[in-house]
Automatic annotation (TrEMBL):
Transmembrane segments: none annotated. It comes from the Bacteria. Residues 128-420 form the GH18 domain. Gene3D superfamilies: Copper amine oxidase-like, N-terminal domain (3.30.457.10), Glycosidases (3.20.20.80). Residues 1-23 form the signal peptide. Keywords: Signal. Pfam families: Cu_amine_oxidN1 (PF07833), Glyco_hydro_18 (PF00704). This is GH18 domain-containing protein. It comes from Brevibacillus fulvus.
């Protein structure tokens, strides 16, 4: 009996070892990951290694890089187009044919395009050679990494609180919102707030000269009006039509007098308590009245909004997107703002916004209070992935040269050159 028990124990130990080895082998062959600008990209077919070349699903990667893809079932051909005008590039390829055409000229791929389960796979190196992406394959982690090339994104920066040290960056942005005004506790507009106020001249540098120099450099200067519902001042304003008319009059007058090209409304804190539906309605009505006035005055109107996956639910994106020229999604402050914002949260915020607002009107807000020169590239990558209008950086004074250089690498340089 004891001998039989010993044999049974030996058998179980051997079986356990086999299962363990098999399990380890399965784990080693986990499904590959594709990272685009540091964030996972969903893909319909697994990458493969053929003759030493990494093959990746074409449409999933291409469309995430802003490439328009069409498929001709009859002759099994793919047409990919990126850019417009002189920057337009057209690539045509056929399944099982290694020779493709790039703007009409033949190019031979190292491995022919193939199909797997109805999905086209092409060599990863294609995206580097034809669309300027940086690509790599990590065999140990089975990870495809793609860094997208610079995109021509609209770039806004905020100048507020302690931005003077980085004023030289102003002319490198398409627009700058100067945070020098706010709604006071009595519901009126003030330029003498504790945090957002009209700054004093610093030698020959005056607030007016900063605005004028920005405009001269082709950077549109915006007047940012801040408000928070901390003491109920925002709710008070939105509930009183006479206060609203007065505040709107003051905003338009100040913007025109100081030669701003637009208004940025940063009204925060709506919808945390009370009736979010009522907050949405009242804020939308206020913006509607303001939009009529800004349009008549020839001013642009941008709105800074809490993200739809945040705590503040007092903002009707669908309505506001129709009233304003663009919406800035404040996809940050999810946690403690001492480390980069979680990419999954930022991605979700953009996806939710896109359900209600066209991508051409959406700007991704990025806080340099949270981000650094490494993480900013992934945030910009999300804006590029969804084809958003651009990005808005909070704020000058927190940016720094390394992060600015990464911003230019990811989002491109301003079209109009300016000396610094």
């Amino acid at each position: 009996m004891q001998q039989m028990i010993r044999r049974m124990l030996c058998f179980l130990l051997a079986l356990t070892a086999i299962i363990t080895v098999h399990g380890a082998g399965s784990a080693a062959q986990a499904r590959p990951t594709i990272l685009l600008d540091g964030f996972p990209l969903a893909f319909p077919a697994d990458p493969e290694i053929i003759d030493g070349y990494t093959m990746v699903p074409f449409r999933a990667v291409a469309e995430a890089m802003g490439v328009t893809v069409s498929w001709n079932e009859a002759n099994k051909t793919i047409t990919a187009v990126k850019g417009t005008g002189q920057d337009r590039k057209t690539v045509m390829m056929q399944i099982d044919n290694p020779v493709i055409t790039v703007d009409g000229s033949p190019v031979t791929l190292p491995v022919k395009p193939i199909q797997r389960g109805g999905h086209s796979l092409i060599p990863l190196s294609f995206f580097s050679k034809q669309f300027g992406a940086e690509v790599s394959w990590d065999e140990a982690t089975r990870t495809v990494s793609i860094v997208s090339p610079p995109a021509d994104l609209y770039k806004m920066a905020f100048y507020a609180i302690s931005s003077f040290s980085e004023r030289s960056y102003i002319d490198q942005f398409d627009s700058v919102a100067f945070g020098w005004s706010r709604i006071a506790e009595d519901g009126s507009l003030t330029v003498d707030g504790k945090d957002f106020y009209w700054p004093q001249p610093a030698g020959e540098v005056t607030p007016e000269s900063l605005v004028q120099n920005a405009a001269n450099a082709g950077t549109v200067p915006y007047l940012m009006v801040f408000a928070v519902d901390g003491s109920g001042e925002l709710s008070r304003l939105l509930a009183d039509s006479s206060l609203q008319h007065k505040a709107i009059d003051e905003m338009i007058q100040l913007a025109k007098e100081k030669k701003f090209g637009g208004l940025v409304l940063d009204f925060e804190g709506l919808g945390l308590g009370g009736d979010p539906g009522q907050a949405k309605q009242r804020y939308s009505q206020f913006v509607q009245a303001l939009a009529q006035r800004t349009k008549a005055a020839g001013l642009q109107l941008s709105l800074v909004l809490h993200p739809l996956n945040g705590a503040y639910q007092g903002y009707d994106y669908a309505v506001l997107g129709k009233l304003a020229d663009d919406l800035i999604v404040m996809a940050y402050a999810y946690e403690n703002e001492t480390q980069p914002e979680p990419l999954a949260k930022v991605n979700e915020a953009v996806q939710l916004a896109l359900q209600q607002v066209p991508k051409q009107k959406l700007i991704l807000g990025i806080s340099m209070g949270s981000e650094n020169e490494q993480s900013i590239a992934s945030k910009i990558g999300i804006a590029k992935r969804y084809g958003l209008k651009g990005i808005a950086i909070w704020r000058l004074g927190l940016l720094g040269q390394p992060a600015f250089e990464q911003l230019e690498k990811s989002a491109g340089s301003k079209a109009l050159p300016a000396s610094r």
